[in-house]
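Class, discuss our next protein.
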Amino acid sequence: MYRLAKEAGVRAGVRAQIDRRRRKRDFRGLWITRLSAACRQRGIRYSRFIDGCKKANIALNRKMLSEIAVADPKAFDVIVQAVNAALGS
């Protein structure tokens, strides 16, 4: 029984490591989905928004941008205006 318990412990450790990486991937997908929806409401595509953020030197990551989009829509509108100005739209 010791051998079975030891193998189960090893498998549990491997699954835990895999799931830690998967959780990071899942959260990034959530942030991108939120940003995409918020951008669509304001008439800009997500890819253009990210490109505009880089051109406007907005150094916020996707996590912070999605939190702003959800928690403070007026501030997100200001960011979208800055992005549109940087893109020349």
Remarks:
- The chain has one domain: 2-87.
- Residues 2-87 form a domain with the c-terminal domain of poly(a) binding protein fold (CATH 1.10.1900.20).
